[in-house]
């Protein structure tokens, strides 16, 4: 099976929604190597028992650590439930993270509907699917 590395990130008002999404897709999550920002990763690990590599909290550099994974070609998808109604002090980091997904053609979901489409796509775990990776 083709294991994928998936980052799970959520702003405070979206953590419960992301946790519910992970539980709804627990079988798919077990097939992935999971990474997350600090608090979000702790909540998911505690609730699900899934193994998760935890980085710093988003505002303390965790968003940038996940961005580094993207730039290094080590991330297959970003599930980032950000809160569009509550501005965060680290909004520039959030924008940079989303920008890197576009630069490196990494699928990113900012809502449960989009996350559903990514994780249930037959291409996501397909052995013979290789997404285009730009060369700069």
From TrEMBL:
<dbReference type="InterPro" id="IPR018148">
    <property type="entry name" value="Methylglyoxal_synth_AS"/>
</dbReference>
<dbReference type="GO" id="GO:0005829">
    <property type="term" value="C:cytosol"/>
</dbReference>
<feature type="binding site">
    <location>
        <position position="11"/>
    </location>
    <ligand>
        <name>substrate</name>
    </ligand>
</feature>
<dbReference type="InterPro" id="IPR036914">
    <property type="entry name" value="MGS-like_dom_sf"/>
</dbReference>
<dbReference type="InterPro" id="IPR004363">
    <property type="entry name" value="Methylgl_synth"/>
</dbReference>
<feature type="binding site">
    <location>
        <position position="15"/>
    </location>
    <ligand>
        <name>substrate</name>
    </ligand>
</feature>
<feature type="active site" description="Proton donor/acceptor">
    <location>
        <position position="63"/>
    </location>
</feature>
<dbReference type="GO" id="GO:0019242">
    <property type="term" value="P:methylglyoxal biosynthetic process"/>
</dbReference>
<dbReference type="InterPro" id="IPR011607">
    <property type="entry name" value="MGS-like_dom"/>
</dbReference>
<comment type="function">
    <text>Catalyzes the formation of methylglyoxal from dihydroxyacetone phosphate.</text>
</comment>
<keyword id="KW-0456">Lyase</keyword>
<feature type="binding site">
    <location>
        <position position="90"/>
    </location>
    <ligand>
        <name>substrate</name>
    </ligand>
</feature>
<dbReference type="Pfam" id="PF02142">
    <property type="entry name" value="MGS"/>
</dbReference>
<comment type="similarity">
    <text>Belongs to the methylglyoxal synthase family.</text>
</comment>
<dbReference type="GO" id="GO:0008929">
    <property type="term" value="F:methylglyoxal synthase activity"/>
</dbReference>
<feature type="binding site">
    <location>
        <begin position="37"/>
        <end position="40"/>
    </location>
    <ligand>
        <name>substrate</name>
    </ligand>
</feature>
<feature type="binding site">
    <location>
        <begin position="57"/>
        <end position="58"/>
    </location>
    <ligand>
        <name>substrate</name>
    </ligand>
</feature>
<feature type="domain" description="MGS-like">
    <location>
        <begin position="1"/>
        <end position="136"/>
    </location>
</feature>
<protein>
    <recommendedName>
        <fullName>Methylglyoxal synthase</fullName>
        <ecNumber>4.2.3.3</ecNumber>
    </recommendedName>
</protein>
């Amino acid at each position: 099976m083709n294991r994928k590395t998936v980052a799970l990130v959520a702003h405070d008002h979206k953590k419960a929604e992301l946790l519910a999404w992970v539980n709804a897709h627990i079988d798919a999550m077990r097939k992935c190597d999971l990474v997350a920002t600090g608090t979000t990763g702790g909540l998911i690990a505690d609730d699900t028992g899934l193994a998760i590599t935890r980085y710093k909290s988003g505002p303390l550099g965790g968003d940038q650590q996940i961005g580094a994974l993207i730039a290094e070609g080590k991330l297959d998808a970003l599930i980032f439930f950000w809160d569009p109604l509550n501005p965060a002090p680290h909004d520039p980091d959030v924008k940079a993270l989303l920008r890197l997904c576009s630069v490196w053609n990494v699928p990113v979901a900012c809502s449960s509907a989009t996350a559903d489409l990514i994780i249930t796509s037959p291409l996501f775990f397909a052995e013979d699917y290789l997404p285009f990776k730009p060369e700069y």
